[in-house]
Design a protein that fits this description.
Shape: elongated
Order of helices and strands: HHHEEHHHH
Number of strands: 2
Structural class: mainly alpha
Helix content: over 70%
Radius of gyration: 20 Å
Distance between the termini: 31 Å
Length: 155
């Protein structure tokens, strides 16, 4: 989404991605969780609001990952936990991609006659991902911290 919104800045879909990323990065994790519970559990009734669903016993291990109700119970906490991280990375990818596309070596690659796909994904994206991977690694600690908040909201 970040690459798309950098390459096609003026399209409607790119503007939707930017709006979603702004909302995702602005709202706190617990509020996203509460809003998801209200919408999908209370109003629509599609997903459970708490719990882990039915479990299956595999020897000494019990898991809800192998049942439909267990997977339904994972959807909202996963979206809640991943939304902030996804929007942060998306905005970083967009900003870095726009910066890389303005550099001289991209201009020289265009002058050499390379295809736009080769320029965007072979040259620009490769150099865009260096700071993105660094920030993604640093965000691992916040994922653990937000997981505690998410578990509190979803019990």
């Amino acid at each position: 989404m970040g690459v798309y919104s950098a390459l096609k800045r003026d399209t409607f879909l790119a503007k939707v991605f930017q709006a979603v990323s702004l909302i995702g990065i602005s709202l706190p994790t617990f509020l996203i969780g509460i809003l998801l519970i209200y919408l999908f559990a209370v109003v629509l009734g599609w997903l459970p609001s708490f719990g882990r669903g039915d479990v299956v016993r595999l020897g000494w291990w019990t898991t809800g990952l192998l049942t439909v109700s267990g997977l339904k119970a994972l959807i909202m906490p996963s979206v809640t936990l991943g939304l902030f991280q996804m929007t942060l990375i998306m905005r970083l990818v967009r900003a870095e991609m726009l910066e890389v596309l303005r550099t001289d070596y991209i201009r020289f690659a265009r002058a050499r006659g390379l295809t736009t796909r080769a320029i965007h994904f072979g040259h620009a994206l490769r150099n865009t991902l260096v700071p993105v991977i660094t920030v993604a690694g640093l965000q691992f600690g916040s994922v653990i911290a937000f997981a505690i908040i998410t578990e509190t909201v979803f019990q």
